[in-house]
Write a structure and sequence with these properties.
By secondary structure, the chain is α+β, with helices and mostly antiparallel strands. It has four helices and six strands, in the order H-H-H-E-E-H-E-E-E-E. A hairpin with a 2-residue loop joins strand 3 and strand 4. It starts with a helix and ends in a 12-residue tail after the last strand.
């Protein structure tokens, strides 16, 4: 095999082996930075710092709610799947802070992908809740997906959705 053929063969094999990684939007610096924002958001909620948590939300960001969090507590179900993210978390956070001694959220990053000014971050969130009126701790685990947007060279949370089951935190059940 001549040196030119050997070089061409190596170039073709290298292109075939490396091209999928180059074409893929998975991973990389941008996806890692977007995932870091998700981790920071969850740390702020665990630290009960709602203003800091909300600082990661993009203007106009939304919460997708697939089912009521506390069925059977009265009130009609929402007509819309979405609500404003900051308002949602300020309400949820206020309930969590007042009803719990401990509420922690750990988001394990399952996958993150970035392309231009958008990214998705898939997580498995594990929560530990210790209500103020109960001694035992409750652990829950669910998938939460974040749609990230880059605004002013900063990754921010544009939307959130999860498959969490309904629970009784904050509704005063014995």
């Amino acid at each position: 095999m001549t040196p030119w053929i050997r070089l061409a063969t190596i170039a073709v094999i290298g292109t075939v082996l490396l091209a999928p990684a180059a074409w893929s939007a998975t991973g990389g610096k941008e996806a890692t930075e977007a995932a870091a924002v998700v981790t920071a958001f969850n740390a702020a909620v665990t630290g009960r710092d709602l203003e800091k948590a909300a600082s990661y939300f993009a203007p106009g960001s939304v919460q997708f709610t697939l089912r009521p969090s506390h069925p059977g507590t009265g009130g009609a179900p929402a007509d819309s799947l979405t609500s404003e993210l900051r308002s949602h978390w300020m309400m949820v956070g206020s309930v969590l802070i007042s009803a719990t001694k401990v509420y922690s959220r750990k988001a394990e990053i399952l996958d993150s992908r970035a392309e231009g000014d958008i990214a998705t971050v898939w997580t498995r969130v594990t929560t530990v809740t210790e209500r103020s009126d109960k001694a035992e701790k409750k652990t829950d685990s669910f998938v939460e997906v974040y749609l990230m947007v880059r605004k002013d060279d900063r990754w921010m949370i544009g939307a959130m959705v999860d498959n969490r089951r309904p629970n009784d935190v904050g509704i005063g059940k014995p």
